[in-house]
Amino acid sequence: MPSSMTTRPRPLSPNVQIYRPQLTSVLSILNRITGILLSACAVVLVVWLVAAAWGPQSYVPVQAAIASWIGRIFLFGATFAYFLHLCGGIRHLVWDTVHGFDLRWIYISGWAVVAASAVLTVAAWVASASMGG
Amino acid sequence: MDPQNMQNMRSPLARAIGLGSAKEGVGVWWAERVSAVALVPLTLWFAASIIAHTGSDYATFIVWLRTPFAAILMSLLLIALFYHAALGLQVVIEDYVHSATRFAAVIAVRLGCCALAGAGVVAILRIALGG
Hints:
The structure holds 2 protein chains of 2 kinds.
Chain A: H1 3-7, H2 23-54, H3 56-67, H4 69-96, H5 103-130
Helix pairs in contact in A: 2-3, 2-4, 4-5
Chain B: H1 3-8, H2 12-17, H3 25-52, H4 58-66, H5 68-96, H6 101-129
Helix pairs in contact in B: 3-5, 5-6
């Protein structure tokens, strides 16, 4: 066998870039992406707590950055990422009990995750605004 | 990880017996689920608490965090959160990083998560128990 046969690059699978995005695949990768984003948010949470432990002189600027318009846009995205990961995670926990694997239920639960995440995000911000934010 | 590195990380005896996996995968799988279940009520409580404190000043926030209930739940939240994050991020690294940096990345994620959870819990204890 010629050596060129063994060194030729083999086709790799799956070729993600040629697939049409579907609800199932999009939610699957979003669960990962939101997990990574929420890990970054967890770092912000610790910074915020350490600043609070340090005293008002360090807490006030951190709180001001979070409450700024840019901070609020990030916080809104973080809220949606949280609810998407929460609802997607609950969907995964149901799957772990070997339930909901019919194609029909995969799509019903998928759209339920999207709808619940959107509703909960808006509800959280409406509730926050009603508290005087 | 390429097969070469995988062989290097196994002892000669393990390689000779050739039993395959380390048989610790089930424990990691369970740990991710258990921490996920714990995080459902903990994060919902945290979100509700933050919403309830919208617009609160430093003093109000500290008074809340000094209550034993809030201090305990916040500490549990940080531990479960960074435990879950470490497990999740490790899976992501193992799926996408195939070079020699993978081992270093996993160690960095684990150490980082331990350090952040520790720093957060100490901060809460400082607020809850400090004068």
